[in-house]
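User: Hi! I have a protein structure encoded as tokens and I'd like to know what sequence might fold into it. I'm fairly new to this, so please keep things simple.
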């Protein structure tokens, strides 16, 4: 685990780090002056493969309920595939919906620590990496986890989600 001074982080980030520590989840923490709102920016800052960056994407089920999809940075989500697998209409959430449903701005949504009971899907391609990187609740803070740990802390279901 990464030593840090919680006082220097926003409250939402502090909550996420406290959750990881409470659960005994091993993680790495990287803090950057430049923000990473997109996976490509995160990969550049981390000097890692784009595919190892977790995009926490917020979708709406039947136009109202939260669906969190944790996608590999190099993949695009196949909405038709998700609709077939889930049996519900899936649509991309607008920035206002993302903020309302998660408490986070687009580009800083973490893959864990969001209150509520909602489905979480994990891109099977993330399992190919020894470590993946996700937003920690701020576009300036990235958290490194193993894919297995990501699945554990997010409660997500691994499945194929990408467009071909």
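Assistant: Happy to help. Inverse folding works backwards from shape to sequence: for each of the 164 positions I chose a residue that suits the local structure. Here it is:
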């Amino acid at each position: 685990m990464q030593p840090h001074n919680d006082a220097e982080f926003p409250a939402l980030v502090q909550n996420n780090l406290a959750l990881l520590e409470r659960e005994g989840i091993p993680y790495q923490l990287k803090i950057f002056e430049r923000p990473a709102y997109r996976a490509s920016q995160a990969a550049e800052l981390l000097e890692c493969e784009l595919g190892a960056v977790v995009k926490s994407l917020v979708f709406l089920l039947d136009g109202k309920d939260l669906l969190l999809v944790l996608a590999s940075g190099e993949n695009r989500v196949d909405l038709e595939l998700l609709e077939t697998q889930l049996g519900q209409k899936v649509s991309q959430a607008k920035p206002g919906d993302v903020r309302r449903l998660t408490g986070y701005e687009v580009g800083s949504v973490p893959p864990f620590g969001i209150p509520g009971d909602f489905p979480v899907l994990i891109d099977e391609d993330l399992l190919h990496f020894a470590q993946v990187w996700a937003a920690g609740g701020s576009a300036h803070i990235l958290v490194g986890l193993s894919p297995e740990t990501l699945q554990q802390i997010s409660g997500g279901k691994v499945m194929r989600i990408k467009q071909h």
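A useful reference point when you look it over: The mean pLDDT is 93. Feel free to ask if any position seems puzzling.
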